[in-house]
Amino acid sequence: MKSHQRYSPVQFEIRPDQIEIRDGWEVVLHYSNDGKGPFLVDLSHRTKWDVQDANLSKIQPRGVTIPEMPGQCVFQNGILINRMNRTQAAVWHLLGDSPDIAQGSAFTEVTEGAAFLFIMGREGEVFSIMEKVTSLDLRLPENKQPFLVQGPISHIPCQIVVFNEKERGSAILFTCSRGYGMFIKQELLDVGTKWGLHPGGENVFSDWIKRFMY
User: pTM for this structure?
Assistant: First the structure.
């Protein structure tokens, strides 16, 4: 069956070099300026689920145990699970083909309702850019990587996951309501001009997440 056309809430004003049609999404794999970061990558096509249950410990998406404490994250089997509060977690598909992980009424797919963006570069670049758009402390050295912070970017409520690996580069993954996607994208590109922030294709993200795994 042919997939219906699906549109990302985030569009960049440069022509892609390589695209792929995936489950109805037009996914940009590569831009001509892919090379040196920092990068801003649109991952809105990546599948996302909201999970809510009074007993989250009994739910194991793709065999992965949901972290016990709010703010904790686990990345296994191609998915990132973020514990939000006592009864709620978010599951983001990051690597490989989109898995079928829904386990009954606890799962709600929220892919098309959210913008999903990735910022990657050297530690000084990534956190300097983020300090321009949020008052949240995203360094928190006592927290085990990766970790979740919930709060505003440019006054927009977001779920933010921090990967801070000096050897492999720092990265921020975050989601927000779909309607704010274009605004927050432009805000980040504007404030990131000083550090050379520019759009990257999905290959930039895939290369980074594989390096993080190993």
Answer: 0.92
Question: Are the C-beta atoms of 203 and 17 separated by less than 8 Å?
Answer: no
> Distance between CA 51 and CA 67 in Å, rounded?
13
Provide CATH code, domain 1-214: 3.30.1360.120
Q: Which residues contact 120 (CB under 8 A, 6 or more apart)?
A: 37, 38, 39, 41, 126, 169, 170, 171, 172, 200, 204, 205, 208
Q: Can you tell me the distance from the alpha carbon of 61 to that of 76, in angstroms, rounded to the nearest whole number?
A: 10
Give pLDDT, residue 101. Answer: 73
Place of tokens 């990587």: 145
Q: Residue 102: what residue type? A: A
DSSP H helices in the chain: 123-131, 181-191, 202-213
State the pLDDT at residue 171.
92
Question: Among candidates 10, 31, 47, which has minimal Cα distance to 189?
Answer: 10
Q: Where are the domains of the chain?
A: 1-214
d(CA 212, CA 149): 20
- List, for residues 61-75, the tens digit of each pLDDT value: 988 999 999 999 999
The count of C-alpha atoms lying within 13 angstroms of the C-alpha of 14, restricted to the half-sphere facing its C-beta, is 16
What one-letter code names the amino acid at 199? Answer: P
> What tens digit of pLDDT does each residue of 163-199 get?
876 666 789 999 999 999 999 999 999 999 999 999 9
C-beta of residue 37 within 8 angstroms of C-beta of residue 199: no
Query: Cis bond leading into 67, ω under 30°?
Result: no
